[in-house]
């Protein structure tokens, strides 16, 4: 449960939440429709003690239904201080990959101050595939290349990395290697399951990566 003050801060419509008739405390007034307000408050309260925070909670939330009892749903929430989009998306993919779920009922909220990953656990379980399929490791070796981009202010690196990874099936991975002032260095892994890659194979993908970064994010390769 959460206080009325937190509901005022995070919910524009309190009529879509369940209020306790006789709360035992002013901190326990509403049944939680989301875990986000609670973890936001926990981050705020602990920042004075530690700047690098990582918090999580797994608990029930209560979805409002006007003509029925509340719908109880299990929610997992993970929070970091700072913009940790890459870590959040990586954790999301790892969790859903572990369950073999293709659909991802998850949300990432991020800013320069904090990053929050919210996972609908019931949705995760519904989409889970209990049988795992073995995929042999690639027969052919990877090829690595680093790109250093000059970024516009306040450009989120996570969405850019995802966009670059989707440029070609030959791109096996894109990771953040280094950050310095307005530059970001990305480590790109090229790999094929069918052949050894040559310079001729990689060159058009290389050029498309640079063009995608420029066209979609105004990020230019550092001279």
UniProtKB/TrEMBL annotation:
InterPro entries tied to this protein: aa-tRNA-synth_II/BPL/LPL, Fdx_antiC-bd, Fdx_antiC-bd_sf, PheRS_beta_core
Residues of the FDX-ACB domain: 138-222
Domain of life assignment: Bacteria
Any coiled-coil regions, as ranges: none
Gene3D superfamilies assigned to the protein according to its UniProt record, in alphabetical order: Bira Bifunctional Protein, Domain 2 (3.30.930.10), Ferrodoxin-fold anticodon-binding domain (3.30.70.380)
PROSITE patterns per record: FDX_ACB
One Pfam entry name: tRNA_synthFbeta
The protein, known as: FDX-ACB domain-containing protein
């Amino acid at each position: 449960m959460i206080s009325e003050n937190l509901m005022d801060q995070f919910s524009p419509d309190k009529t879509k939440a369940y209020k306790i008739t006789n709360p035992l405390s002013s901190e326990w007034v509403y049944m939680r429709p989301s875990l986000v307000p609670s973890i936001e408050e926990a981050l705020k309260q602990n920042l004075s003690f530690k700047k690098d925070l990582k918090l999580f909670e797994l608990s029930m939330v209560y979805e409002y239904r006007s003509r029925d009892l509340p719908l109880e749903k299990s929610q997992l929430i993970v929070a970091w201080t700072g913009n940790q989009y890459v870590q959040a998306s990586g954790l999301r993919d790892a969790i859903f990959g572990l369950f073999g779920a293709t659909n991802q009922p998850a949300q990432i909220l991020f800013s320069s101050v904090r990053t929050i990953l919210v996972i609908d656990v019931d949705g995760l379980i519904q989409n889970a595939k209990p049988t795992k399929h073995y995929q042999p490791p690639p027969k052919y070796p990877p090829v690595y290349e680093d790109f250093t981009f000059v970024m516009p202010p306040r450009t989120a690196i996570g969405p850019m990395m995802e966009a670059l990874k989707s440029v070609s099936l030959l791109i096996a991975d894109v990771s953040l290697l280094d950050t310095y002032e307005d530059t970001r260095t990305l480590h790109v892994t090229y790999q094929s399951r069918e052949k050894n890659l040559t310079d001729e194979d990689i060159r058009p993908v290389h050029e498309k990566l640079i063009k995608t970064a420029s066209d979609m994010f105004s990020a230019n390769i550092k001279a």
